[in-house]
């Protein structure tokens, strides 16, 4: 796993939390929810290949 993906996830988390706070204080809770959902989906799409690789490695471990 690359270290850069951890920094990308952290950056998205910080950005999403700041945007959500700004949107909530301005009375736009619906947009804050959509921003947090978009951030979650973006990070999920980044880590899906790593999860897939993990399951492949585990499967190869138990197949003789």
| Unreliable parts | none
Number of helical segments with 4 or more residues? 2
- State the end-to-end distance: 25 Å
Output the helix-strand order.
HH
Shape estimate: elongated
What percent of the residues sit in helical stretches (DSSP H or I)? over 70%
Sheet/helix structural class: mainly alpha
Radius of gyration: 17 Å
Give the total of beta strands: 0
Number of domains: 1
Task: Produce the secondary structure layout.
Layout lengths: L2 H23 L3 H34 L2
Helix pairs in contact: 1-2
Summary of the model, kept short:
Pfam families: SpoIIIAC. With 64 residues, this protein is an all-alpha fold.
How would you describe the overall organization of this protein?
- The model has no long low-confidence stretch (mean pLDDT 94).
- 89% of the residues lie in helices and 0% in strands.
- The two termini are 25 Å apart.
- It is an all-alpha fold.
- It has helices at residues 3-25, 29-62.
- The longest helix is centred in the C-terminal third of the chain and has 34 residues, at 29-62.
- It contains 2 helices and no strands.
- It has one domain.
